[in-house]
Write a structure and sequence with these properties.
The chain has about 375 residues and is α/β, with parallel strands linked by helices. The chain has two domains: about 140 residues, 3-Layer(aba) Sandwich (Rossmann fold), CATH 3.40.50; about 220 residues, Glycerate kinase, domain 2 (Alpha-Beta Complex). About 35% of the residues lie in helices and about 15% in strands. The strands form four sheets. The protein has a six-stranded mixed beta sheet with strand order 3-4-5-6-9-10, sandwiched between helices. Helix 1 links the parallel strand 1 and strand 2. The chain starts with a strand and ends with a helix. The mean pLDDT is about 95. It is an enzyme of class 2 (transferase).
Length: about 375
């Protein structure tokens, strides 16, 4: 039997490669010689690089840049054939910030890393958005690439969100000229616009420490930045889908000419997941919690679509599974790792052992059904 293991991460508990390893250990208890194709998934957010590397889709490289608070930070990026992948969460990730406020953080380190990749000769770059601690509309990123934000008197502004309301002009004359020939893609499943009730500040700001009273101020600042950019290069709609991703970096990158792609679909493409599934007898996917949102672009739903297209059975093994008919109909069996009533803390604590146990029972059931059919 050949089985593809393509789980997403269990957020706050296990990274996708660790989930796959736990499932693999349970399957091997039943069939020690089972052929397992490990292909961890990600949706373009935190853990994307790790998932790609674990799936054999490229080699990790290191670079020194600055984080959201301006401190030196060693980060990784991935080189895959002619494509370089950088992960925003590696550079300005939310779990890595100290006591700084949102007004003190910027995305300059992402621009630094992009420039380093240009120095490495990279001509195709994908930026995995998600998990950022910033809400600067990508202004720091653009400044790190050589642009200058100026006030109404033409004076340069420091690359900090506190100065964005004063920005009336973006001087792009110093932008790295290599950007003009760079094929740039952003990986994200976020469709939120830059501003407004569904924008970066309103939807994602609170989890980054933004108080309700500050929302109008930050939202207005992002609109000011966008208008300054659009004075230079009109054509991109202010409400473009995905503009609010990663604190507004989605808008800045699309203004630079980046093409947006579903994160999960991009990871599947780079890893050759469709071909790997077509060669398998069974597919197992999963995530921390599966519910109605799973079917709206989440990695397990994409895995299920690829398996259905190839005529290969696909099962879901998640931390928790909502009682949802549409979800159940999308998989050949939906299973929770919990063997007993348990709190979230208990499930996270025992995730590795319980995943292995559940995978073992799933395979025993599958083998029993196969014997019965014969």
């Amino acid at each position: 039997m050949r089985c593809v293991l393509a789980p997403d991460s269990f957020k706050g508990s296990l990274a996708a490669p660790a989930v796959a390893a736990a499932v693999a250990s349970g399957l091997r208890r039943v069939l020690p010689d089972i052929v397992l194709d490990i292909c961890p998934m990600a949706d373009g957010g935190e853990g994307t690089l790790q998932a790609l590397a674990s799936a054999g889709a490229g080699a990790l490289q290191s670079a020194l840049v600055h984080d959201a608070e301006g401190l030196p930070r060693q980060v990784q990026w991935l080189h895959s054939d002619d494509l370089a992948v950088l992960e925003v969460a590696q550079v300005v990730g939310l779990p890595d910030v100290g006591r700084s406020t949102l007004a003190e953080r910027h995305s300059g380190g992402v621009g630094e890393l992009l420039r380093l990749l240009l120095d490495q000769g990279c001509r195709r770059v994908a930026i995995a958005l998600g998990g950022s601690s910033t809400n600067d509309g990508g202004a720091g990123l653009l400044a790190a690439l050589g642009g200058v934000w100026r006030d109404r008197d033409g004076q340069p502004l420091p690359p900090l969100p506190a100065s964005w309301p004063q920005a009336v002009y973006f001087d792009e004359s110093g932008l790295d000229p290599r950007l003009a020939t760079l094929e740039l893609v952003v990986w994200s499943d976020v469709s939120n616009p830059l501003c407004g009730p569904q924008g970066a500040s309103a939807v994602f700001g609170p989890q980054k420490g933004l108080a309700a009273a500050q929302l109008p101020q930050f939202d207005a600042a992002l609109q000011t930045l966008a208008q300054a950019l659009l004075r230079q290069r009109p054509g991109l709609p202010l409400e473009v889908a995905g503009g609010g991703a990663a604190g507004g970096m989605g808008f800045a990158l699309q203004w630079l000419g980046a093409r947006q792609q579903s994160g999960a679909a991009a990871v599947a493409e780079v890893t050759g997941l469709a071909e790997r599934i077509a060669a398998a007898d069974w597919v197992i996917t999963g995530e921390g919690r599966s519910d109605s949102q799973t079917l709206h672009g989440k990695a397990p739903a994409l895995v299920a679509q690829l398996a259905r297209a190839a005529g290969v059975p696909v099962s879901l093994l998640s931390g928790a599974v909502e009682d949802n008919p549409a979800l159940a109909a999308s998989f050949d069996g939906c299973f929770s790792l919990c063997p007993q009533p348990a709190s979230l803390a208990e499930a996270m604590q025992h995730a590795t052992a319980w995943l292995a146990q559940a995978a073992e029972q799933m395979l025993r059931l599958r083998l029993a059904a196969r014997r019965q059919a014969c």
